[in-house]
Amino acid sequence: MEIKALKEEHWETVRAIFIEGIHTKNATFSLISEVPMWKEWSENHLLHSRFVAIQNSKVMGWAALSPYSEKHAYRGVAEVSVYISMEARGKGIGEKLLKTLVKASEENAIWTLQSRIYPENKASLYIHEKCGFNALGTMNKAGQIDGVWRDVIILERRSKKVGV
Length: 164
Hints:
There is one protein chain. The longest helix has 15 residues, at 93-107. The protein has one domain (2-158): 3-Layer(aba) Sandwich (Aminopeptidase), CATH 3.40.630. Helix 3 links the parallel strand 4 (77-84) and strand 5. Helix content is 27%, strand content 35%. It is built from 4 helices and 7 strands; from the N terminus they run E-H-H-E-E-E-H-E-H-E-E. It is of the alpha+beta class. 27% of the residues are buried. Strands 1-2-3-4-5-7-6 form a 7-stranded mixed beta sheet.
């Protein structure tokens, strides 16, 4: 398996993996109708930190950073997205992508990474903690999926290299 920069040519598979995540109801508050096309997605994610995991010429997962805020003071804070295809889960791909994302973030002056993860998404919580993220707390009833209120755990990784 190799990790490569996520490019437009990967988008249809990346989009399909994102939709798989939506179907689990444990990955995002996004609805399928809200999944953007390439141009919009690309405009909302940092160019320097977006990756795909490729195995046997097939995209198995992806990871990207989006800005936390447009305010200048938060220019070094980004939000993490990591999605793995159903067929590739449990093979360490998420951890490899997240480690690559952490490294790229530090190379590009990002000092804090944040993630919001459902408590039920144990695999995602595990890889984030393994990659140096700490739980800050739980946002109770952060949003609804199918009329059911869902909590999210807010995790943060503060760089020891950038913004110290």
